[in-house]
Design goal:
The chain has 379 residues and is of the alpha+beta class. Among the domains are: 36 residues, no CATH class; 41 residues, no CATH class; 132 residues, Band 7 domain (Tetrahydropterin Synthase, Chain A, 2-Layer Sandwich), CATH 3.30.479. Helix content is 45%, strand content 17%. The chain is built from 9 helices and 11 strands. The strands form 4 sheets. Strands 6, 9, 10 and 11 form a 4-stranded antiparallel beta sheet that branches. The protein has a 3-stranded antiparallel beta sheet with strand order 3-2-5. The chain is rod-shaped. The N terminus is likely disordered.
Length: 379
């Protein structure tokens, strides 16, 4: 045998390569390596002591079979209700498993990668949370920005060549329908989501004027940036679902924030005065239109009245003329009497008898109606 202790060989018996007397198995004199045959012999003796007598090739096969079965059973694993398992064989993706008890070949042949697909992750852009961040992700509920700022992320150029300080938060999760894309297509998933979020927000802000960003268009930026982020991540096959984008703060840079506030206040005053003027116009115009309509109706009524009176007078004249033709004398006398009645009916008058026709002399008298206001006491 090449490694027999009583034969020569390539080794020096006085030089132990293990560096310790007797070797790691304690065999041979000091400075000699262990004897492999002796090691095998002692191992067999140890097994014979452990196993029952008569253990031969069949028993060894049973022992191997039991070991293989134990190894195969070690491939059982459980997947949590919020997880999806990815089965790998020699590192190659073979399929995914749902929650519950599942099986895959154990290592070193197979392995399982479990992903929490229902957990929501939070990525902040423009500032750093002081706690709870791991690899750019933070679990929890969205809130106002806290912690140190990151101006290299938050300062963005607007469509009218101004600068806006935009801090926002992205809430996302692993796509349950494509967890294999999340696991294998992107190396740094959280970093990719953050880079895509910043790029999408810069594109949206770069197409919008700063005044609209600060006022009316804030609620339009959130869904637009979310849709753009989802589109880019789908093109990357990143296996990520963007659930929500929240604009936490949008402000001008600190150096010019006072001037922007003055401009905003002036614009608010302009809008307020415009609303007041519009309200005054809405009140005055209907009143003027109502007055004009009233005047037109009064004029129309007056016209109808005059026309009706004129037609009545014309009809009356025609009737009188018809009677005049039948009896001219009587009609003239009647017209005279009616005219005198209409003229003198409301006037104060004194009737005198004509002395030449035998009337008695009339004694002068003071007209009593002239003193009527003084009756009942002194003035």
């Amino acid at each position: 045998m090449p490694w027999s202790s009583d034969q020569g060989g390539p080794r020096n018996q006085n030089n132990n390569p293990w560096g310790q007397p007797g070797g790691p198995w304690g065999q041979g004199p000091a400075g000699q390596p262990p004897d492999l045959e002796e090691m095998l012999r002692r191992s067999q003796e140890g097994l014979k002591q452990i196993l029952p007598s008569g253990f031969g090739g069949r028993g060894f096969a049973i022992l191997v079979l039991v070991a293989v079965l134990a190894w195969l059973l070690s491939g059982l694993y459980t997947v949590g209700p919020n997880e999806i398992g990815l089965n790998l064989i020699f590192g190659k993706y073979m399929g995914k498993t749902q929650a519950g008890l599942n099986y895959n070949l154990p290592g070193p042949i197979g392995s399982v990668l479990k992903l929490a697909v229902t957990d929501r992750n939070i990525t902040d852009v423009g500032f750093r949370e002081e706690s709870g961040i791991v690899d750019g992700r933070r679990r929890g509920s969205p809130s106002a920005p806290r912690g140190p700022e990151a101006p290299e992320e938050s300062l963005m150029l607007t469509g009218d060549e101004n600068i806006a300080d935009v801090k926002f938060r992205v809430i996302w999760q692993i796509d349950p329908s494509k967890p294999e894309d999340y696991a294998f297509n992107v190396a740094n998933q959280a970093g990719t989501v953050k880079a895509v979020a910043e790029s999408a927000m810069r594109e949206i802000v770069g197409q919008t004027q700063i005044q609209k960003i600060l006022t009316a268009d804030r609620k339009l930026i959130e869904p637009a940036s979310q849709a753009l982020m989802q589109k880019v991540l789908d093109e990357y096959h990143a296996g990520v679902l963007v659930l929500q984008v929240l604009l936490l703060s949008v402000d001008p840079p600190q150096q010019v924030i006072a001037a922007f506030r003055d401009v905003t206040a002036a614009q608010q005053d302009l809008q307020r005065l415009g609303n007041e003027a519009e309200a005054y116009a809405n009140r005055v115009v209907p009143e003027a239109r109502g007055g004009a309509a009233r005047i037109l109706q009064e004029a129309e009524a007056y016209r109808e009245q005059i026309v009706a009176e004129a037609r009545g007078q014309a009809s009356r004249f025609e009737q009188i003329y018809a009677q005049y033709k039948n009896a001219p004398t009587i009609t003239r006398q009647r017209l005279y009497i009616e005219t005198m009645e209409r003229v003198l009916g409301g006037a104060e008058k004194v009737i005198l008898d004509d002395p030449s026709k035998g009337g008695a002399n009339v004694t002068p008298f003071v007209p009593l109606p002239a003193f009527a206001p003084f009756q009942g006491g002194r003035k």
